[in-house]
Amino acid sequence: MDTSTNPLASSLGERIRDLSATHPVAIRRITSLAPVWTLLAMFIFFGLASPNFLTVRNLENILRQMSVLAVFATGMTFVLLLGEIDLSIAAVAGVSAMISATLFTKSGAAEPIPLLAALAAAILAGFISGFFSARFRIPTFMTTLAMQLIAGGMTTYLSKGRVITQITDVSEFLGSGRIGGPNGFPVIVVVAATSLLVGHLVLRYTRFGRYIYMTGASKPAARLAGVNTNRILLMVLTICGFTAGLAGVVGMGRLHSALPDAIPSYLMDTIGAVVLGGTSLMGGRGGIPQTLVGLLIYITLRNGLDNIPTIDIYLRDFITGWVLLVALVINTVFAGRTERDKTI
User: Global pTM?
Assistant: First the structure.
């Protein structure tokens, strides 16, 4: 529309420009909270649409449903801040869980050996992906795709296609235990909160965290400033491997079994939640607080739709996709553009 021939549009545009010019900080703060407004709108809508949504029991369910994804998202936030991607997290989680269960059932290994072996395997997987990407300048998309196949193949080999239902007490406690008795606080929520908190502290208050933001914003500039960007990439993918392994062990405890195949939705759900909160796929912008908001939006939407019985169960994924797409557009328009992006 040509605003020069439309007085109303021209006047509105001038008012917005004047407001942005006179109160730039306030406008930036308001628009940067677009994901928070989205989350509040969802809570209000589902609270009115379903009498069960705002109950204590359901709010606890939201936290539990979010917990495994939160552990995954901690590591993925590090990766996306670099402007990279890790496609192997679901497969790494699957092989970590299978290694733990196999050692426990077939080798009779005592705790904490199964747990440590599972985490070590996940760390090694992340390290290998990071090493080949950093050393040979192979895009992380390709190295982690290869690792996805490697980890998935190892899971199939160890499981022989069978579900293992005998898991360690440590995994059972982390995934399904409660603090303070049967009606106490879920341990899995504590694990998720600890993961997010540690990730936030590292990104916000350490030199390593600052180097991640610098590298994600501009790798050439970071190199000129003396940052070893290859080492940063290696460390970040190793961290993502560790969080994937931890999520695999915790998820095994929540499901009370180790599965012969990775759960493919973990990958897309993790990336979707992190980006939905405001972390840029291009790197250099975002963080754990944004990831937390994105996780809450994602799980609230799924949980809220499940609490509305009038919605056809076969349409829920369709509705979820459209709502998330609209939320992503809103969040990108209001919170995702930098000054450089506005020239595009």
Answer: 0.88
